[in-house]
Amino acid sequence: MRICRFNDDRLGVVEGDKVYDVTKALEILPAHRYPLPRFDPMIAHLDALRKKIAELLPSAPVRALAEMRLLSPVANPGKVIGAPVNYRKHLLEARADVELHQQNQVQEIQRIGLFLKATSSVVGPSESVAIAHPERRNDHEAELTVIIGTPGRNIARADAYSHVAGYCIGLDMTIRGPEERSLRKSIDTFTVLGPWLVTADEIEDAGNIDFSLTVNGEPRQKANTRDLILSVPELIEFASRFYTLHPGDVIMTGTPEGVGRVVPGDIIHTEFSGIGAMTVAVISAS
């Protein structure tokens, strides 16, 4: 099932070029009062939500996908976890380009570990990437993104997929410079998630997904997730050794070689087999 959030926080199921409005399904979610939970309630109750969606689909209003404003499929991620230099060729690329490494030693992911991005940086594809520091290099990074569905700590690699709710496309935007990754990658709008959540049962093998990225039609990145240094199960195992993973937590699995600069006016287009495609405009921050 492909589940999207659109317009004014409405819920939809995507089939082809149509969106079935199943917002009424959200009524089954429990109400929360302060203190609010540290997880995303929709993702935490995804199984029950899918059952309600199935009941509503036959009579759900149908709308044209092209006319919808797509939001992040996860409204309230507790954590956005990044996997730096998790493709071998990108590691070599980063070490060779001074604009990428900024005189810092670029080490293997197994040594430097993971990093966190501010949740305030999360947007959907229709909300655009806003360049706040045009005097510096701002780069695109296409990534398979994993959405955690079941909580866990110290999750064994063999059990990792049982904790996955689904997948989406991620743009891990970054500004180049000497600062820590978590700062440079946490600018508002620099975590683009979309175009929808594809439930885990629809992805046969997360370790074999072809994907690509273009800017203004120019090919920039093309790879397959089989080239990941740490696979999806290994990343879940690694992350859960340090953090309890909660429903709605997001793991961005890393980007391949071909990262490059974008400027206001550019159009970024990404495609992931089994998930879909998303188009994101680059604008100037107001």
Could you characterize the architecture of this molecule?
It is a single chain. By secondary structure, this protein is α+β, with helices and mostly antiparallel strands. It has 2 domains: 2-67, no CATH class; 80-284, Fumarylacetoacetate hydrolase, domain 2. It is 16% helix and 32% strand. It contains 7 helices and 19 strands. The strands form 3 sheets. Strands 1, 2, 3, 4, 5, 6, 7, 10, 11, 13 and 16 form an 11-stranded mixed sheet that branches. Strand 18 and strand 19 form a beta hairpin. The radius of gyration is 18 Å and the shape is globular. The two termini are 36 Å apart. The relative contact order is 0.21. The model has no long low-confidence stretch (mean pLDDT 94).
Number of strands: 19
In terms of DSSP E residues, the strand content is 25-35%
* CATH class wording of the largest domain: Alpha Beta
Number of helices: 7
What about the largest sheet? 11 strands, mixed
Structural class: alpha+beta
Helical residue percent band: 10-25%
Specify the overall morphology: globular
Mean pLDDT: 94
CATH architecture of the largest domain: Alpha-Beta Complex
Q: N- to C-terminal separation? A: 36 Å
Q: How does the SSE layout of this entry go?
A:
Blueprint: E1 2-6, E2 10-15, E3 18-21, H1 41-44, H2 46-56, E4 62-64, E5 80-82, H3 88-96, H4 98-101, H5 109-112, E6 115-117, E7 122-123, E8 129-131, E9 138-140, E10 142-148, E11 164-172, E12 174-175, H6 181-184, E13 191-199, E14 210-215, E15 218-224, H7 232-240, E16 250-252, E17 260-261, E18 267-272, E19 276-284
Parallel strand pairs: 5-16, 7-13, 8-19
Antiparallel strand pairs: 1-2, 1-13, 2-3, 3-4, 5-6, 9-12, 9-17, 10-11, 10-16, 11-13, 14-15, 14-18, 18-19
